[in-house]
């Protein structure tokens, strides 16, 4: 069943019981706050890796942790903390991995290290999940955090990862829009050529069970009225689940614009690895981190 709100996602995650999460560089008050809320709600069991003394101090100051004794691994260097957390997850000692207070480049280096055992030859991509009061269900936007300028085959892999994630989250027939600036195919806009080619491949079942349309402008993806005004027949207009952006900048700007201008709630997870990887900006709120833990738990 399709998830319509983050509250619903949190409720489902709580119903499945706690998932073990290895947290790299956990000595951060926002991370500790989100983990405390997730523990209280019953869907995570964290291992905190980083500066042990600082972590214990933050835990002691957070009411959500009252009466709980944290599992702490002392790794003062953030890069070493990331390596330890990634290796722990790769060994199956955690169900998912979470980024704490360290640069994304250092965290991803640990995730992508073959020694960690997370990648296993799979293609990794980032999904942002967005909840808006003006839209009837959660939207998945990809890839705004990992693949900078994907070629057609990488876009295909990003799309497969997104479809797989949504199916695992309960959407039986994900509807995907391959975003561009216009619906007409033009060699002057290479993204439209890629979108048309991927839509043709989808018609032959490559991305089943998804319904895939492209090239599609954002207004058509989100509004049946826009599709009608443009004389476009669409199976996804106003019912889209996945927005696949042509470049990382597009997805990144779109998601941040929705958060800061439209009050969207959000989550961020790297998919395609052997375990979900919760990866967020250091500026993200406890609510965004809590939502991300819920989505990660449901994918674990």
Characterise this structure:
The structure is a single chain. The protein is an alpha/beta fold and 300 residues long. It folds into two domains: 1-122 and 273-300, 3-Layer(aba) Sandwich (Rossmann fold); 125-266, Isopropylmalate Dehydrogenase. 43% of the residues lie in helices and 18% in strands. It contains eleven helices and eleven strands. The chain has helices at 6-16, 29-41, 52-61, 78-90, 104-112, 152-169, 190-203, 218-222, 224-229, 248-262, 286-299; strands spanning 19-24, 44-50, 71-74, 96-99, 125-131, 139-142, 175-179, 211-216, 242-244, 265-271, 277-278. Strands 3-2-1-4-11-10-5-6-9-7-8 form an eleven-stranded mixed β-sheet, with helices on both faces. Strand 5 and strand 6 form a beta hairpin. Helix 2 (29-41) packs across helix 11 (286-299). The longest helix has 18 residues, at 152-169. The chain is globular. The model has no long low-confidence stretch (mean pLDDT 94).
Tell me the layout of helices and strands.
Elements: H1 6-16, E1 19-24, H2 29-41, E2 44-50, H3 52-61, E3 71-74, H4 78-90, E4 96-99, H5 104-112, E5 125-131, E6 139-142, H6 152-169, E7 175-179, H7 190-203, E8 211-216, H8 218-222, H9 224-229, E9 242-244, H10 248-262, E10 265-271, E11 277-278, H11 286-299
Parallel strand pairs: 1-2, 1-4, 2-3, 4-11, 6-9, 7-8, 7-9
Antiparallel strand pairs: 5-6, 5-10, 10-11
Helix pairs in contact: 1-11, 2-11, 4-5
């Amino acid at each position: 069943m399709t998830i319509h709100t983050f509250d619903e996602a949190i409720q489902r995650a709580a119903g499945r019981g706690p998932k073990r999460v290895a947290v790299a560089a956990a000595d951060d008050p926002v991370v500790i706050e989100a983990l405390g809320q997730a523990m209280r709600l019953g869907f995570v069991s964290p291992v905190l890796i980083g500066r042990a003394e600082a972590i214990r101090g933050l835990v002691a100051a957070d009411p959500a942790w009252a009466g709980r004794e944290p599992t702490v691994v002392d790794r003062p260097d953030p890069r070493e903390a990331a390596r330890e957390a990634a290796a722990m997850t790769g060994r199956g000692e955690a169900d998912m991995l979470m980024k704490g207070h360290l640069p994304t480049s250092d965290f991803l280096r640990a995730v992508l290290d073959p020694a960690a055992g997370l990648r296993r030859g799979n293609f990794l991509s980032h999904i942002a999940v967005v909840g808006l009061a003006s839209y009837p269900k959660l939207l998945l936007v990809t890839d705004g955090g990992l693949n900078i300028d994907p070629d057609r085959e990488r876009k295909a892999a990003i799309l497969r990862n997104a479809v797989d994630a949504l199916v695992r989250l309960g959407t039986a027939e994900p509807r995907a829009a391959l975003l561009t600036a216009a619906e007409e195919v033009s060699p002057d806009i290479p993204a439209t050529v890629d979108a048309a080619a991927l839509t043709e491949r989808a018609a032959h079942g490559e991305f089943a069970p998804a319904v895939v349309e492209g090239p599609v402008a954002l207004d058509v993806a989100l509004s049946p009225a826009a599709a009608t005004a443009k004389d476009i027949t669409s199976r996804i207009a106003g019912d889209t689940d996945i927005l696949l952006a042509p470049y990382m900048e597009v997805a990144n700007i779109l998601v941040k614009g929705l958060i800061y201008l439209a009050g969207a709630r959000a989550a961020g997870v790297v998919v395609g690895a052997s375990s979900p990887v919760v990866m967020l900006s250091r500026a993200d709120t406890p609510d965004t981190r809590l939502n991300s833990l819920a989505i990660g738990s449901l994918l674990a």
